[in-house]
Design goal:
single chain; binds zinc ion
Length: 144
Protein backbone atom coordinates (compact mmCIF):
# COMPACT_ATOMS: atom_id res chain seq x y z
CA UNK A 1 0.00 0.00 0.00
CA UNK A 2 1.42 3.37 -0.95
CA UNK A 3 2.03 6.00 1.66
CA UNK A 4 -0.34 8.46 0.01
CA UNK A 5 -3.25 6.08 0.66
CA UNK A 6 -2.91 6.62 4.39
CA UNK A 7 -5.14 9.03 6.20
CA UNK A 8 -3.80 11.26 8.95
CA UNK A 9 -5.21 10.58 12.43
CA UNK A 10 -5.51 14.33 12.80
CA UNK A 11 -6.19 16.26 9.59
CA UNK A 12 -4.03 19.22 8.72
CA UNK A 13 -0.98 18.49 10.88
CA UNK A 14 1.37 17.38 8.12
CA UNK A 15 1.62 17.15 4.35
CA UNK A 16 1.42 14.00 2.23
CA UNK A 17 4.11 12.42 0.13
CA UNK A 18 7.66 11.14 0.41
CA UNK A 19 8.92 14.35 2.01
CA UNK A 20 6.27 15.13 4.62
CA UNK A 21 6.36 18.43 6.45
CA UNK A 22 4.59 19.60 9.56
CA UNK A 23 2.05 22.34 8.99
CA UNK A 24 2.14 25.25 11.39
CA UNK A 25 1.22 28.90 11.40
CA UNK A 26 3.27 32.07 11.42
CA UNK A 27 2.14 35.32 13.00
CA UNK A 28 1.72 37.98 10.28
CA UNK A 29 2.96 40.73 12.59
CA UNK A 30 5.84 39.38 14.70
CA UNK A 31 6.79 36.35 12.57
CA UNK A 32 6.62 33.82 15.41
CA UNK A 33 6.01 30.23 14.29
CA UNK A 34 3.53 27.91 15.99
CA UNK A 35 3.01 24.16 15.98
CA UNK A 36 0.38 22.95 16.53
CA UNK A 37 -1.24 25.79 14.60
CA UNK A 38 -2.11 28.90 16.52
CA UNK A 39 -4.90 30.79 14.77
CA UNK A 40 -6.81 32.89 17.29
CA UNK A 41 -4.24 35.06 19.01
CA UNK A 42 -0.46 35.39 19.09
CA UNK A 43 1.25 33.84 22.12
CA UNK A 44 4.03 36.39 21.96
CA UNK A 45 3.18 38.57 24.99
CA UNK A 46 4.46 41.63 23.12
CA UNK A 47 2.20 41.03 20.12
CA UNK A 48 -1.55 41.53 19.79
CA UNK A 49 -1.92 40.05 16.33
CA UNK A 50 -4.83 37.83 15.37
CA UNK A 51 -3.63 37.23 11.81
CA UNK A 52 -1.69 34.10 10.86
CA UNK A 53 -0.42 32.46 7.69
CA UNK A 54 -0.41 28.67 7.38
CA UNK A 55 3.14 27.53 6.67
CA UNK A 56 4.96 24.29 5.98
CA UNK A 57 7.77 24.00 8.51
CA UNK A 58 11.32 22.68 8.04
CA UNK A 59 11.30 18.92 7.67
CA UNK A 60 14.59 18.53 9.48
CA UNK A 61 16.00 19.67 12.79
CA UNK A 62 18.41 18.72 15.56
CA UNK A 63 17.71 16.92 18.83
CA UNK A 64 17.51 19.21 21.80
CA UNK A 65 16.51 16.49 24.26
CA UNK A 66 14.90 13.06 24.27
CA UNK A 67 13.48 10.50 26.66
CA UNK A 68 11.37 7.41 26.95
CA UNK A 69 7.75 7.68 27.99
CA UNK A 70 6.18 4.93 30.03
CA UNK A 71 2.65 6.25 30.06
CA UNK A 72 0.08 6.78 27.33
CA UNK A 73 0.32 10.10 25.53
CA UNK A 74 -2.39 12.71 26.19
CA UNK A 75 -4.75 13.98 23.52
CA UNK A 76 -4.37 14.79 20.70
CA UNK A 77 -1.79 12.03 20.44
CA UNK A 78 -3.36 8.68 19.78
CA UNK A 79 -1.61 5.51 20.81
CA UNK A 80 -2.18 2.09 19.34
CA UNK A 81 -4.44 -0.52 20.88
CA UNK A 82 -1.87 -1.84 23.33
CA UNK A 83 0.24 0.80 24.91
CA UNK A 84 3.96 0.30 24.70
CA UNK A 85 6.61 2.66 26.03
CA UNK A 86 7.80 4.94 23.28
CA UNK A 87 10.67 7.29 22.66
CA UNK A 88 10.05 11.01 22.26
CA UNK A 89 12.38 13.73 21.09
CA UNK A 90 12.32 17.51 21.30
CA UNK A 91 13.77 18.69 18.01
CA UNK A 92 14.80 22.23 17.09
CA UNK A 93 13.72 22.97 13.54
CA UNK A 94 16.47 23.86 11.10
CA UNK A 95 15.03 27.17 9.90
CA UNK A 96 12.43 28.28 12.43
CA UNK A 97 14.55 27.41 15.51
CA UNK A 98 11.44 26.32 17.37
CA UNK A 99 11.44 23.11 19.40
CA UNK A 100 8.79 20.53 18.53
CA UNK A 101 8.14 17.50 20.70
CA UNK A 102 7.19 14.33 18.90
CA UNK A 103 7.30 10.55 18.98
CA UNK A 104 10.37 8.91 17.49
CA UNK A 105 9.95 6.44 14.61
CA UNK A 106 9.42 2.77 15.39
CA UNK A 107 12.54 0.82 16.23
CA UNK A 108 14.57 3.69 17.66
CA UNK A 109 15.46 3.68 21.35
CA UNK A 110 16.99 6.48 23.43
CA UNK A 111 20.34 4.65 23.08
CA UNK A 112 20.16 5.31 19.33
CA UNK A 113 19.85 9.07 19.82
CA UNK A 114 22.11 11.90 20.91
CA UNK A 115 21.78 15.63 21.43
CA UNK A 116 22.42 17.56 18.22
CA UNK A 117 21.55 14.59 15.99
CA UNK A 118 19.81 15.50 12.75
CA UNK A 119 16.21 14.30 12.53
CA UNK A 120 13.57 14.41 9.83
CA UNK A 121 9.79 14.22 9.75
CA UNK A 122 8.37 10.88 8.64
CA UNK A 123 4.84 9.53 8.47
CA UNK A 124 4.15 6.08 9.94
CA UNK A 125 1.08 3.92 10.01
CA UNK A 126 -0.49 3.92 13.46
CA UNK A 127 -3.46 1.60 13.03
CA UNK A 128 -5.90 0.22 10.48
CA UNK A 129 -9.64 0.57 10.61
CA UNK A 130 -12.14 -0.62 8.01
CA UNK A 131 -9.41 -1.13 5.43
CA UNK A 132 -7.94 2.33 5.80
CA UNK A 133 -4.49 2.94 7.25
CA UNK A 134 -4.25 5.83 9.67
CA UNK A 135 -0.95 7.61 10.07
CA UNK A 136 0.90 9.90 12.45
CA UNK A 137 4.04 11.97 11.98
CA UNK A 138 7.20 11.12 13.90
CA UNK A 139 10.81 12.15 14.19
CA UNK A 140 13.32 9.79 12.62
CA UNK A 141 17.12 9.96 12.61
CA UNK A 142 18.09 11.38 9.23
CA UNK A 143 19.93 8.97 6.98
CA UNK A 144 23.30 10.48 6.19
ZN1 LIG B 1 2.71 37.84 16.79
Amino acid sequence: MSQSAMQPTIAGWFTDGDQPRLIGTQCCDCGTYFFPKQELFCRNPNCTSTRFDEVELSRTGRIWSYTKHYYAPPEPYISGEEFEPYTIAAVELETEKMVILGQVANGFEPEDLHTGQEMEVVVEKLYEQDGTDYAVWKWKPKAS
